[in-house]
Amino acid sequence: MTHLGPHLRHYGPVAPAAHPGSSTSPIQPKLMPPLTDTFEIEDFTALSDWEKFVAGFEDILRDWGVSHYHPPPDPAPTNATSPGVPWVWRQTRREIRFMDCGFWVTRFLRTLDVADDPPTVPPPTRSDGSVTPGSRACQSLMNGENDFPCSAHPIYYFYGLDEFIILSPQGTEQVDNPTRIKMVLGTLSVAAHNTECGIPMFIQVMQRSQAQFAGLCVNDRFRTMFEMAVLPKVPSSCRNLSEILYVFQEKLSQPLPMSVRGCRCTLRRTYRLEDWTSHAWTQAPPDFELFAMFGGQLGYLNDLRQLPFGAGQDPVKRLLLNTTWPGLVEETVLENDVHNDLDPLEAPSWSVSVQFEEQPQCLLGQYLRQFVKVSENHESMLRVLGDFFNQSDYDVDESVDNVPNALKRLTGPTYGLTDIIKSGRSRRNSNQPGPIKDDYLFKILEYLFPDSTDKPEFPYPQDFGSPSHRHNENFNNFRVLLSTIKSCPVDGLLWRFTIVAAHCLHILGGIKPLAHLMHEFMLEIRFRWENGRKLPGLPHGPPDHSYCLFHQKLQMINYCIDRKLARESVPNQSNEEAVTPKNDENSDEEFFDCDEDEEIEVDETKTNAADLPIWNQKPAGRAERLGKTMLLHHNDFMYVPICQEPAPMTDDQLAEQAEILLQLGSDAEGSELRAKMQSASLLSDMESFKAANPGSVLADFVRWHSPRDWIESQKDNGEKGKLSVRMMTPGNAWAEAWESAKPVPARRQKRLFDDTREAEKAIKFLTSLKPGEATQTLMPTFLHAAIHRLLLETLDNVPNLKDIISTVLPVLARLARFSCRPEVQHYSSETLPEFDTRTNLVRDVVQRLSAAEIKLSQALSLRAKFTKDVNFVKEKAQLDDQEQVARQMEDFVRQLYSCPEVKVVGASRGPAGQLIQKMFKEAEKATQMITDDMEAVTDAPLKVFPAPVSREYIIRVAVPRPFPYSAKSPQRLYVCIKDKEFRLAGAFTLDKEYL
Questions:
Q1: How far apart are CA 717 and CA 797, in angstroms?
Q2: How far apart, in whole angstroms, are the C-alpha atoms of residue 601 and residue 753?
Q3: Ranges for the Rab3GAP catalytic subunit C-terminal domain (predicted)?
Q4: Residue 571: its pLDDT value, please?
């Protein structure tokens, strides 16, 4: 039964037509039920999965605008590696699926355009409007300018194509059997014919690591098949150029035999150098033993005064020398099992590339990571040091044994480092040695406290901000950014302590030596405070809030020592005045300079000294006269009093005070208490002013202390001014303080700044820090020292390194402004969001500095290799060319670092080529263990280069295929021979005209 379609009914057999002339009527057809239960209906007009796959691929080509598109030939082909040509690779990717397997369709285009998507180029047309046969792919196959490009896509490297489309499976899927490969190639072929797209198309086959492709290119006249094979070993029939030419000619002789002549061959040999011998560049970590023996006079390599820098192993892994013979005719070169014309010293073109270690172990990076790791440790000093640590060492010792020390303090004794160490250890009950050897500890303390020796080897600079500490131009270039870091002065006490702490962590065994160093450092601080000896390496004056909190605490201790010494140097006059009665005739009078013709204008309305209370008639504590300013209600000049200096505070004290004032609230009682806390210094100044200016009133004090609150005016009643509105408000803090103030000079007042209490608070803060907490507080200083170490090197030859430093410095400045938990835990238990922000910024800075160190180490290693023996090259050059040779070598090193492959000017005869020969020769001598004496007595010349690690061949020819009368079409074969890889990549073109 014939299938008439699903919309028709099924009928029974149709009766034959009546015979002409018969009277019998035809039999009417009988309606029958559907036969759906008997068979199924299959619709062959529906699309299959493969047809949907092809249609989807064609839609992508149409969306990209490459249907009916035949790329025109390049007007002026240029190598991708040519200098000054901004060639870029653009790619566009789309997704397509075949059943349950996903594919990526990616278009690659090498272009000068920098648009996000590859540009759509309209196809060239003839005068009659028809499309000309595309020839860009054919031209690229025959273009010798694109041979052996560096850092290129494998297809561009194997075939020289600058535009192509790749169909690659997603995920772990692989097109790894012949059936799948043929099916996908069929998809490409159908799509190329249906869309008339002349762009070469490829499918990625086998494992991705093999970079193996198969593809085709179809245009109006030619069809090119791209074939590739990758084998683990070299076939016996493809070991040299002669055998490869034979295989290539045999391939072109199919399907019809033909004579192939005039093949052009481009050959390359690659030699590898990994043994640098005398040209290796490695940096040894600092050595405490050498530092203790020689006093640090060894430069930066073994100097504990700087953080280390450089790689423990050479960051340059290997050097690859590529010797190339371009465009040789097959008859002019011979390479077989018997003879080889390819001498690398005679190669017309040399190029060099270097490979760096992926993750070189650099010294500064190790220090940075270990410092950050220890900052996360929460062990206490007692847990780390055990019996060696005794908390009583930090406490104030008030025993009788300290009486001689107190007496010696009056005579100013001298002491040495031995006394310092013994002073801390005398309190210990055990003689257990510490983690740091005594010799090392003695040298470290001498470095930190050079004033303890008669002839210090490491004195502190006189001026921490002097330009002499900017060692090179890098510090001038980043001077503004460096000044924003809140750490400490360069080469100051805290700077040195931070660097030595990092050395103890990395060299002496970790956190235990660090804890021991902190213990001895705090003992020295306690010793100096008790004996009135200032800490060296700190700027003078009160704590500077532009430095970190740790440094502010050290400055506070030094400031307290200054105040203590100043207070003890002044005799106690109050006791003498209380015991010995004084009369006006024998008492010392205070005199001040004045002009000879100057007279005091006596105002009868003002009081005189005799009218004042007897306890306030004699002035005290005058510093100087305030010009010709007179008191308002007393016939006397106004004098500036000697006042107590305001109490300095560190950052944590300011934050603690602000928090306390905030917690007082806004009610009347809280406001009154807040006003009293803030008016302590004001009350002291008022008492000093009253003592220096008997008969003064509040208006006199305001005229001196707050001139803006005094309004000058001249009235008829003789008044010269009045107080401001806020000063005349009843019950204001100034008026109440003035009423309660007594005329007491500053020396007799209660101290606003208790140096003993503040020094003990600062020492307690430092001694309570755990080793991990100490590293957190020292982190800005440590990172600052790391940047300082990088800036000691030359950054000009390293691209983007200055940009990295410029980016890191603002991050470090922001990091240093945030507080860490140890800095606030003594007055606040709240977890602040800035703690986590600071931690993240620390990790970011460490990562960037480690990357900068790697870049700089790589550049310095190359510089050491190619400029160390520059005199060897200069000697062979003429006198006039020596300066040019030096510049040429500098440019060569700079390009070698920034470019993936660098052409050697002059090949083997150029200055760089001669130096490379010397490197290979030394490595060969080291491999064969040949000394200079053995080489002198050997008749046979020493081989310069080892066996090549890879041999590459590119063979081209244009021949008519498949028939002798066909148009000439490009044929190309790429061959790569390595130790464990053999690769063939062929492009074979046929003329479609007679197929």
A1: 81
A2: 40
A3: 778-993
A4: 59
Helix (H) or strand (E) holding 575: helix 573-579
Instruction: Map residue 952 onto helix, strand or coil.
Output: strand
Q: Rounded to 5 degrees, what are φ and ψ at 952?
A: -125, 140
Sequence-ordered list of residues with C-beta below 8 angstroms from that of 212, at least 6 positions apart, any chain: 204, 205, 206, 228, 230
246 CB-near residues (< 8 Å, 6+ apart): 237
Residue in this structure with the two tokens 């039920």, named with its chain if needed: 33
- Rounded to a whole number of angstroms, the distance between the first and last alpha carbons of the chain is 43
Signed CA dihedral, 391, 396, 398, 404: sign only: positive
Helices (H), 664-732: 668-678, 680-692, 698-705, 725-728
Length, in residues, of the chain: 995
Helix (H) or strand (E) holding 550: helix 549-569
Whether omega for the bond prior to residue 255 falls within 30 degrees of 0, making it cis, is: yes
pLDDT at residue number 947 = 93
Cα 4 vs. chain centroid, distance in angstroms?
77
Scanning the structure block, which residue is given the tokens 């059997």? 177
Q: Kindly report the number of other CB atoms within 10 A of residue 395's CB atom.
A: 14
Cα–Cα distance, 743 to 692 (Å, whole number): 8
DSSP assignment of 299-311: TTTT-TTS---SB
**183 burial type by CB count under 10 A (0-12 exposed, 13-18 middle, 19+ buried):** middle
Instruction: Supply the pLDDT for residue 72.
Output: 66
DSSP state of 119: P
pLDDT of residue 17: 46
Question: Are the CB atoms for 836 and 813 separated by under 8 Å?
Answer: no
Kindly tell me the sign of the dihedral angle through the C-alpha atoms of 108, 112, 118, 120.
negative
Q: Got the DSSP string for 751-776?
A: PSS-HHHHHHHHHHHHHT--HHHHHH
- CA distance readout (Å), 219 to 111, 145, 333, 487, 908: 22, 24, 35, 69, 44
Q: For 257, which DSSP code?
A: -
Residues 366, 510 contacting (CB under 8 angstroms): no
Mark the ranges of the chain whose per-residue pLDDT is less than 70.
1-46, 70, 72-86, 113-135, 290-302, 387, 389-432, 465-471, 570-617, 665-672, 674-675, 677-678, 714-719, 869-881, 932-941, 995
Phi, psi of 71 (to 5 degrees): -55, 130
Long-range contacts of 633-637 (CB under 8 A, 24+ apart): 633/606, 633/607, 633/695, 633/696, 633/697, 634/606, 634/607, 634/608, 634/693, 634/694, 634/695, 634/696, 635/600, 635/602, 635/603, 635/606, 635/607, 635/608, 636/600, 636/609, 636/693, 636/694, 636/695, 637/600
Six token digits for residue 72: 């025109």
Is-cis flag, bond preceding 118, omega within 30? no
| Kind plus residue range of the DSSP H or E element containing 319 | strand 316-329
Separation between Cα atoms, residue 158 and residue 973, nearest integer Å = 9
The pLDDT of residue 429: 42
Record the pTM. 0.77
Q: Which amino acid is at 336?
A: N
- Scanning the structure block, which residue is given the tokens 């086959």? 205
